[in-house]
């Protein structure tokens, strides 16, 4: 299983599409070479245009997922989606940071 994950991540870093199962095993949406670690604080600094698209896309999804149910009056669903997606972004950032180190 570990060998499969290693090969899947190598293929993803080389630009090929990972297998669907890789999402369950630690798949990252962003690629480590798009970012560098921040000098001060925790986080990532975008160094390519793909990193900027990655960040804008994440925040766009979080915004739409929070606003859409809110406008329909479902405040609990809006809050739940924002929390789950924000945690997903933080986990993805952590996986990217770990690969950079």
Listing every helix as H and every strand as E from the N terminus to the C terminus, the arrangement reads HEEHH
Largest sheet: 2 strands, antiparallel
Distance between the termini: 23 Å
Across the major sheet, the strand order is: 1-2
Q: What characteristic shape results from the CA principal axes?
A: elongated
* Number of separate helices: 3
Number of domains: 2
User: How would you state the average pLDDT, rounded?
Assistant: 78
By helix and strand content, what is the structural category? mainly alpha
What Rg do the Cα atoms give? 15 Å
Task: List unreliable stretches of 5+ residues.
Answer: none
Number of strands: 2
Helical coverage, percent range: 55-70%
Strand content: 5-15%
Structure explained in plain terms:
The chain is mostly helical and 101 residues long. It has two domains: 1-28; 31-100, no CATH class. Helices cover 60% and strands 6% of the residues. The chain is built from three helices and two strands. A two-stranded antiparallel ribbon has the order 1-2. A hairpin with a 6-residue loop joins β1 and β2 (44-46). α2 (49-71) runs antiparallel to α3 (75-100). The longest helix is centred in the last third of the chain and has 26 residues, at 75-100. The model has no long low-confidence stretch (mean pLDDT 78).
